[in-house]
Amino acid sequence: MDKNLIIDVGVHIGQDTEFYLKKGFKVVGIEANPDVYQSTKNRLHSYIEDGQLTLLNVAVSSKDEPITFYANLDKSIWGTTSLDWVNRNQNSFGTSYTEITVEGRRFENILLEFGIPYYLKIDIEGADLLCLQALRQFDTKPKFISIESNKTAWAGLLEEFSLLKELGYQKFKTISQETVCQQVCPSPAKEGKYIQHEFEFGASGLFGEEAPGNWLSESEAIKVYKGVFWYYKIFGVNGIIYRNSIGKRILDTLKIKEPWYDTHASL
């Protein structure tokens, strides 16, 4: 494991990558959308030039071959290689996609090329488990991992925990992404060097020992998610209230939004 390396799977516009770079880490970033990749590459070009950042314009895939990437026309962050995610977002939000052919790479081969990172951040809209499954082939694992938790199927969430446990992860945190903008970097730093940083909406936020909250056991973390899933069932976009037109208007008026969570795991 390279203690100075972070792999950011799902760079998007680079909020997380830039945070890791400022904290002094070397970063390998992965972004499938060619337009977003180019924009982020231009913005972070100085880090690329000095060798601190390697940016890959590929999609994590089950095969090393071209793959269809569905670029969202309303929110670029919803880009995905998963047709199930496309259908879900179209049905829930009425959003539109366009198809792009991009280079697909197995995550196993990316790890072989760049090494096992200290922290692995995964947020690729429906393909997160491909990255976790790739780690089965390696004796060494990242010290910390974070993934965007499954919010559509309880069985899917349990599968995530089962795989993380299989890989040797024993401690967990459930982090609401709605409140990331309120996070403050601790001083002295517990990960990398201390910086003053304001997190933008959509960023993954603090990681490792700096991530907010106490580490939980698997059963404790799953108990937290039981409450989260009840919230989804009542207030979510496919929940009891939202399905009623009057209820939808009330939720929209009160600005009650469906939250999403990241699961952080530690060896």
Task: Report a brief summary of the structure.
This protein is α/β, with parallel strands linked by helices. Helices cover 33% and strands 21% of the residues.
Could you characterize the architecture of this molecule?
Pfam families: Methyltransf_21. This protein is α/β, with parallel strands linked by helices and 267 residues long. The chain has a single domain (2-266), classed as 3-Layer(aba) Sandwich (Rossmann fold). Helices cover 33% and strands 21% of the residues. It has 9 helices and 11 strands. The protein has helices at residues 15-22, 34-43, 45-49, 83-93, 107-114, 128-134, 154-166, 218-235, 245-253, and strands at residues 2-9, 26-30, 53-56, 59-60, 67-72, 97-102, 104-105, 117-122, 144-148, 171-176, 261-266. It has a 7-stranded mixed sheet, with helices on both faces. Strands 4-7 form a two-stranded parallel sheet. Strands 5-6 form a two-stranded antiparallel ribbon. The longest helix has 18 residues, at 218-235. It is globular, with a radius of gyration of 18 Å.
